[in-house]
Amino acid sequence: MHAASALIWAAVTTPEPVPSPSWTSPPPELVTPGPAGFFVIAILVVALTLLAADMLRRVRRARYRDEANEALDAEQAAAEAAARGEAPTEAPLENEGTEEDDRR
User: How many CB atoms lie within 10 A of CB 78?
Assistant: First the structure.
């Protein structure tokens, strides 16, 4: 059996390796984004900038609205206390923070 397999291996010729064709890079106009890609990115940058500015404006407006509501509530409580004849309680000054604010 050993002689038969050696004979078969000797009869079978190994093919010569064929080199694969060299890889060529694709043309640059197919790889680069070009003017269309630039305009898409520019539009995205402008849109995100406008969204960030709008968000900042809305957050600021909400914060100012909360501060105004707190001032109105304190003023209304002082007016009600004065109408009942009670001594008005002192509200903290605008620049003076509470202990909780100082810990932050």
Answer: 15
